[in-house]
Design goal:
Elements lengths: L7 E7 L14 E5 L5 H12 L12 H8 L4 E8 L2 E11 L3 E9 L9 H15 L6 E7 L6 H7 L3 E7 L1
Parallel strand pairs: 5-6
Antiparallel strand pairs: 1-6, 1-7, 2-3, 3-4, 4-5
Helix pairs in contact: 1-2
Protein name: N-acetyltransferase domain-containing protein
InterPro entries: Acyl_CoA_acyltransferase, GNAT_dom
Organism: Microbulbifer aestuariivivens
């Protein structure tokens, strides 16, 4: 990977639940919410899914900061399993003014390219809209050129639109 190339960040949003273009659930893939909050599990998921994409900014955080992040009421975590193994995960963060951010989203390395990402993203968007339907006004996420080459296309295929780009 060329670390000298400029990095472009894309900010995407969906402003109505009816904009969601769902991908069907692949056979054998089950998505469950981790209802019992455990910061160590979030840290493990972050490392498992983020390693190929250099998600390193949070790895050095002390346990207390991980706990504050992962165990608060405004954060919910879902995990995708295939035959009992972790295939991927996502975190949703409830924010002010009816915003919900897909804070983290991705597949475990051995599951990339197996057709699970579209369904997992569909599940994430549906869960975001269902979290507090009376108050949710927008679901948003950001991705960048360091992410999986298909990430931006997946977000757009599910009905999200780019509202801002930044290049550094």
């Amino acid at each position: 990977m060329d670390n000298t190339a400029p990095v472009t960040t894309y900010y995407l949003e969906m402003t109505a639940a009816h904009q969601l273009r769902e991908k069907p659930q692949p056979e054998g893939l089950v998505v469950m919410e981790a209802e019992q909050k455990e910061f160590r599990f979030n840290r493990y998921l972050y490392q498992l899914v983020g390693e190929p994409w250099q998600w390193v900014d949070k790895l050095s955080l002390p346990d207390a900061e991980w706990r504050r992040y992962a165990e608060r009421e405004q954060l919910r975590t879902w995990v995708a399993y295939e035959r009992g193994s972790i295939a991927g995960y996502y975190e949703l963060e409830q924010q002010p003014q009816g915003n919900i951010q897909i804070a983290y989203f991705g597949l475990a390395p051995r599951y990339v390219g197996r057709g699970f990402g579209g369904y997992l993203l569909s599940h994430a968007l549906r869960s975001a809209w269902d979290w507090n339907p009376e108050q949710t006004r927008r679901v948003w996420v950001h991705t960048c050129t360091l992410d999986h080459p298909g990430a931006l296309a997946n977000y757009q295929a599910r009905g999200m639109s780019v509202y801002k780009t930044e290049t550094e």
